[in-house]
Design goal:
Layout lengths: L2 H4 L5 E2 L2 E2 L17 H9 L4 H24 L1 H14 L10
């Protein structure tokens, strides 16, 4: 096994991690939903599949971002300490 095989990066596309911009293949699933909210959504013509997909995309994106921030917190803190100690290299060129 090479080093690349040991740490695969699933769903990586063009610098992004996660599902692509285009919808993937559909899959039938069974869900249990509160009857009242289901009736209200149907009465308003809400496409349940589309609404669920959009919300799942939003939630999974947020979870990936949170995980990435947590995994990189030490680097952020290190960078902020460096800037606090040494300043910004371009400070002398700023005109504001």
């Amino acid at each position: 096994m090479t080093g690349f095989d040991e740490n695969p990066r699933p769903f990586r596309r063009g610098g992004r991690i996660g599902p692509g911009l285009k919808p993937g293949p559909k899959r039938a699933v069974n869900l249990r939903i509160d009857a009242e909210i289901l009736a209200a959504a149907k009465a308003q013509g809400i496409n349940l599949s589309q609404a669920l997909e959009e919300e799942l995309r939003r939630l999974t994106k947020k979870a990936r971002e949170t995980k990435w921030q947590e995994e990189n917190r030490e680097a952020f803190e290190s960078y902020n300490r460096f800037i606090a100690e040494h300043g910004i290299w371009s400070e002398k060129y700023r005109r504001w």
